[in-house]
């Protein structure tokens, strides 16, 4: 794609490997509750690694980790777009509010379900 001179790929635990600030952060973190693993469709459960999907008992472990890094990583006028489970908007918003974010907008997917939060400082 010709991105070698314009992209840097790093490996790390959430935001720990980068410094910021960034204008845009997009994340589709794991959000499946541990108890839901066996209920996932076989085409998901049998082909996706657990680490890409599972996020603890309440499905919020990744959001708590992100909430610790986002204040440092997000620029003053920056925006974070976080995908979440279809029934997790309130819980993820509460995690981000506890991290100090006041600008939180909900967005719906094409099926009308709340699936993304837009977060700003």
What characteristics describe this protein?
26% helix; 121 residues; 4 helices; alpha+beta; 4 strands; four-stranded mixed sheet
Brief account:
The protein is an alpha+beta fold. The chain is built from four helices and four strands, in the order E-H-H-H-E-H-E-E.
Task: Explain the overall architecture.
The protein has helices spanning 42-45, 50-53, 61-73, 89-98; strands at 22-27, 74-83, 103-108, 114-120. By secondary structure, it is α+β, with helices and mostly antiparallel strands. A hairpin with a 5-residue loop joins strand 3 (103-108) and strand 4 (114-120). The longest helix has 13 residues, at 61-73. It starts with 21 loop residues before the first strand and ends with a strand. The model has no long low-confidence stretch (mean pLDDT 93).
Give the low-pLDDT segments. none
Q: What is the total tally of β strands?
A: 4
Let me know the largest β-sheet. 4 strands, mixed
Oligomeric state: single chain
Class derived from helix and strand content: alpha+beta
Q: What coarse outline follows from CA principal-axis ratios?
A: globular
Strand portion: 15-25%
Query: Could you tell me the radius of gyration in angstroms?
Result: 15 Å
As laid out across the biggest beta sheet, the strand order is 1-2-4-3
> Can you give the mean pLDDT?
93
Share of residues in helices: 25-40%
Count of helices? 4
Distance between the termini: 33 Å
Order of helices and strands: EHHHEHEE
Question: How would you summarize the topology of this molecule?
Answer:
Blueprint: E1 22-27, H1 42-45, H2 50-53, H3 61-73, E2 74-83, H4 89-98, E3 103-108, E4 114-120
Parallel strand pairs: 1-2
Antiparallel strand pairs: 2-4, 3-4
């Amino acid at each position: 794609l010709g991105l070698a001179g314009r992209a840097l790929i790093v490996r790390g635990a959430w935001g720990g490997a980068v410094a910021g600030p960034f204008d845009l952060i997009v994340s589709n973190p794991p959000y499946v509750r541990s108890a839901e693993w066996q209920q996932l469709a076989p085409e998901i459960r049998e082909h996706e690694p657990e680490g890409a999907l599972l996020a603890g008992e309440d499905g919020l472990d990744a959001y708590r980790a992100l909430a610790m890094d986002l204040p440092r990583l997000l620029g003053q006028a920056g925006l974070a777009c976080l995908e979440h489970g279809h029934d997790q908007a309130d819980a993820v918003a509460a995690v981000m509010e506890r991290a100090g974010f006041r600008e939180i907008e909900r967005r719906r997917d094409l099926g009308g379900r709340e699936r993304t939060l837009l977060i700003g400082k």
